[in-house]
Fold these 2 entries.
Entry 1:
Amino acid sequence: MSVKKINRTKTGVLRFVLLLFFLFFFGQPEQCSSKPAYITIALFALFAFIAGRFYVKPGEKNVIYDKRGKAVLLVSGFLFSSAVLLANYKMYIEMSVFLRSCIMFLLFCSSGVVFDSIFRFCYDLFSRSEIRTEKSSGKPAVWFISSFLLLSSFYLLIFFLCSYPAQICSDSLNQIKQVIYGDYSNHHPVYQTWLIGLFYKLGMSWFGEINAAVATYTVFQILFISAAYAFMISTFIKAGSKKLFAVFWLVWFLVTPCHIIFSFTLWKDSLYAAVVCFFTVTLFRIYKNTGGKIFNYILLFLSGAGFCLLRSNGLPAFILLVAIYAVICLISKKKEDRHIIICCIAALVTAVVLKYPVLKTMNIPQADTVEMLSIPVQQITRIAVEKDDFTDSEREVLEQIASVERLKEQYNPKVYDYARDVIRYEGDQTYISSHPVQCFGTWFTIVMRHPVIAAKAWIDQTSGYWNPSDYYWMKWWDGVCEEEGLYLKVNSPKADEIFHSYVGLFTSENSILTLSYNVGLHVWVIVFFAVYSVFQKRRDHIIALPVLTLVATLLIATLMHDEFRFGYPVYTCLPVIVFSCLGYKNAAGSEK
């Protein structure tokens, strides 16, 4: 046996042992972090490793990676390993120093091997498969109309049978009350509130009853969301997608409970995710020279403005996106990059004018200052709970904002709402805006004194959006907030029973179907395909940037550790990201 073959065998044995460690570490039933996603990832990695070692014929093995390719894999594996290690700190933090160090080292290395094994297997698989041709595979207009009618009819059917006039939570009830009484605020995006008001008033003029008026907006939302998905499917066909690929995603939009329920859930997140979908698909169309240019740029501008205006974190995410595109434009100097950046800047300027000068003229208040400070407040409160060693000057600043004792009483490591409400209703958040430097300095000195506790607070508050395995908080309301004359009308109790039984299959603890709404796992799927694009020296990962910038803002300021609706754009944009990164095999094909 040659030295090369012996070394390869030793490396294979070591990788197999690390994969087994990963599987058994997360397979411990007593561990709270043992979730279906990690077990599924571990089993897939083992399968990928075995297939790569024993079932790939000689001469059909993965390509020999060059230095650049190895660097891409190394960085990606490092990021995945870091995410797994940080997110699961509770599983080893209480161990002795020696044992903790060993577990951390093995977990980090095994996570890297998991990512590497899956990537190598998928790279080989993707290189053998084709999901598109160079010509359109059908008539896009026919596919758009057919997809739109199928999606909207199905969503409307479930809506009318099971949840009329909509799924209405406290947030959406607040927006309805703003419409009724005219007391507007931009805490919930006022432009979406006005859109609700437009259809509400139309419904009242047609039907003269509040439930029918609210249902009028719900019907509009269902049609708008269906149009976004149908636009994506027809774009696939226009770009040469094989019909089976397009049908797969059409069925995915039809059968996944989150898409069904969010279509008639009356809140900003449903509409916003559809707008981000329009923006991302339009971006793809411009880069791939698909469809009419004028139409694409008009839609990019309109959806870009909506990207900024229809969620509080939309504007900072779009600013980050424009900054990244500006760098790309400077590097590439391609015509479409210049046009995209000009169009995005125009949308950004329009949105800023509409959000600030226009609303100020109309005396409509913006969202609270404290709303965007979830991470600093959670970090300081966590340090107060575990150490409470603030200096007199630090405590004096903190007490100006809110009672430290009350913050400690209300602290929840995964939900910011409780601490926020202490500041909002019992404290003085204006002190933060009037003394920003002093408040920042106080936060900085406290965090620098206790970086580990601050890191744990950040992980507990945000890991739902980057940890590939966790519980995800989805709000399925079986009813409405019964105020102002609103009430739930179930037109078919039998259909309602069947539908909720179906949803239960996806929400039962430890069910494999829970993976369909695991936000962190889907974020990593997007990262995986972006890495695949970079690995092949293509630019298709650019299509993933709108979603990834939104996720980045959640890591800076999220109210909930894992609320599904905040990450919903990940789901609406996933198909076009997969198609962009997987459908084009090389740099030349990508630029056609």
Entry 2:
Amino acid sequence: MTSATTKERLYLFDTTLRDGQQTQGVDFSVEDKRRIADALDGLGMDYIEGGWPGANPVDTEFFANPPKPLHAKFLAFGMTKRAGRSAENDDVLAGVLNVGTATVCLVGKTHVFHVKTALGITKDENLDNISASVAHCVTLGRETLLDAEHFFDGYKADPDYALSCVGAALEAGARWVVLCDTNGGTMPEEVFEITSVVCEKFGGDRIGIHTHDDTGNAVANTLAAVRAGARQIQGTLNGLGERCGNANLVTLIPTLLLKQPYADMFETGITSEALTRLPKVSSLLDEILNRPPDAHAPYVGTAAFAHKAGLHASAIIKDPSTYEHVPPETVGNERIIPMSNQAGRSNLLKRLAEAGISFQPNDSRLVRLLEHVKTMEEKGFAYDSAEASFVLLARRFLDQMPQFFQVDRYRVTVERRHNVRGDLVTASEAVVKVAVDGERFLSVSESLDPEGGDQGPINALSRALRKDLGKYQGYIDDLELEDFKVRIVGRGTGAVTRVLIVNRDSKGRRWSTVGVSANIVDASFQALEDAILFKLLTEGAPVSSKIAAE
């Protein structure tokens, strides 16, 4: 095994704030960019690419007051000078340099087709653009990178010219030349072969790799380039990027640190402790984008170490490594053996223990609980996706569920009407009556947003249920609904609606609840009520002295 002192250094370059922002539907605010940059720096990234100064108002404002990372190098992105101008007098190049970052990354053409067709210049003029631009940046004391655009396609079209572009940048003083699979169409074996040629000619300690995921091979292509000698890796958080995305650093980082042969050969700026924060950094991006995290994302997804194993459950409990390629705790995740219609006794006992539910192994209620779970899933419930609802169900079966409140009744109405401006609008109203400590509370809520738009009957119902719960109100004020999913289960007249809700609170905790009914409102209410009950249970809220008035 290679000693840690002899490991080669890999340098990690994040381009979420620039290339990731090219994703359709993604528009970072300045504050979004600051939060992401801070998280990347705390993780241990070597380079953070902030964007292209002047390309849009957000990037311009961002660079006007840039973040000051403690560890990473913060840099601006731009393009090489244009033909017919000197590097000193090119205003586009000056725009990148004028923001004052100590490192800059320039994109340059390396494919003959793009040189002749897109730029409309000769091959020699393009070489001069690359060489003069890099030399100018270096003269000004900037660490300079060249993103070799469409390099792999360019190499296949004219290998000598593509290599001459790399050579021109390196001879002019570039610290890194990054080989870009710009359209994401190159296969791993091609990446390995071509990168090997480049590294043999110029040395891999100045060569980087930048891949896109249009064939689903961005991570594989990046690893192939590393094996071939490239020592800088570019990518984005969660694989964000235009079209199908970029190489996913959230997958690459733990692979490089934990999997062979990379773990024995290389080191990065990511410590073992920082690696455990990777799920939080990944979920931060999803939170900013207001989208649910991918539960099945490698390493960091909530289902990445979930074993719906059925007859294998006993083996998993005795020897988890048989079914897990790395220990979940090394990446800040945890093992889950969810309840499902395949569940066995070992599965059930483990879930109860993890939930902190006390039991006797010979308790006859366990058999009935297991059968009840299977029956409920046949009706459409999904406890593998709603662990909180399972915990509540199990506690009720084992007589360990505290009494908090009781819902006497609820009503939801929807009407179309003209508002005071004469516009035709749809409005929803919910009424919920609950009993706490013998007192009854009646709450009414509409679903209209501040601008008068209807947010739907489920929104009204959620507001009304959480509006006044007496002594429990302070426990649920920070409760938020993060995701709401609806699915029709079954066919024809026997079909029912399943609602899955992901909830969160100010402490960063997330939990899922489920409801099933022929009526979507009723299914939603079940999941909403479970969410509040689980929150109260988790917070250790006091029990209700009596539910209803005498």
